[in-house]
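Problem statement: downstream parser choked on a complex file, so we are re-checking the raw output for the zinc ion run. The parser issue turned out to be on our end (a line-ending mismatch), but while we're here, posting the original submission so the record is complete.
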Amino acid sequence: GTLIHATIKKQQLSKFQRLIVAGERRIFENFILTKATGRFRVTKHAYRMAVMNITSIIPCASLSDDMYLDLVDFERIHNDGTLTENILIDVIGQVVNLGEMKTHLRLDQRLSCTLWGTFAESIFDACANNGENKFICLLRFAKINSFKGERSISNAFEMSLLQIDPDLPAVLDFVGNLPKDGLALTVKARVPKVDKSKQKAEENRRHPIQTIANLLNYYEEGKFRVVATIYAIDIEFAWYYFVCLKCNKTAYKVPKVENDVVKKNKKTFFSCRGCPEIHTKVEPRYKLIVCVMDSTGQSKFVLFETDATSLTHQSSIQMLDGNYDEIQDPTKIPQPFLNLVGKTFQFVVSVEKDNIRDGSDTYKVAHVFLGLDDEINNVEEPSFGSYDLASIVSGDQ
Ligand SMILES: [Zn+2]
């Protein structure tokens, strides 16, 4: 036997989910076979299966206990240029150093392994339970990554499977080959401090790249990277709003009473939904709408405080300079915004309910990468098919 990648569409999940149990065998009848492509191919199989509405899934007696592991040793990961990064692999390793989180095969052979979310939590738990003792990890469907010629592995979103000290022949073999006086587990820190901004940037880098045309035609919630050029600043609406510093909710200016004697320095009051009385404890926040384009189309992106600040090098507080109640001349666009026109950035935007249900072509920006990284010069042909990770529920046979 062997493994093949099978997908079930989100809409069909409720129908098929209960028919599939991890580790059990099923007979599939009537399904679609397509060529396996993309960056996250679960198996070496040249094709992948897609379940259709008319597919029948029938229980089947177990034929063997084989898990069809596709184990790749560290030597090959490091040195075998023919090993494609597009196909996920299985790796057995011993955790010897947490914090940098290295696994090793022999004393002289190590491999960096980056794990996210629940995968990382499992490792921390295993460390806590094992004390100084080493333990073995089996990471199935791991992604090979390269950075500056150095290869490492990571989990591939939620597709990977992590088992700690699994009772498998392959694992026993691995343990048997370990040096007897092997390294003790050196835990650098029980829970390593993570550089949040670095982690966020790295997570953002994992979103698939899309063109604007594809973004406009996408009807499921999700995040994508889009390389786009700002061609105008949209000033139809104010580029800022106010937040209450006490309750963190949006604050609105209290209109001044008409015929009121206009005094100089008269304070502007704000009301918000979280506080009982009007007050002045507010700060502005960016909500800057930029018009963007790429070779396929045009759209609008909304930038919030963090990203607008990193692009303009000025916070909204600095930009307004305390003039909270002056009516901004709508024809006068602040120079720091105009400086953005003509520049190209890599944005991470989210497709949300508004975009799907109401057809809004304005997308919220979750992150902006400053400076184009090399990947942009080497953008893969975008295709939702190969990145349709949300619909993948099973990578098993
Ligand atoms: Zn408030």
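For whoever reads this later: The two ends are 9 Å apart (CA to CA).
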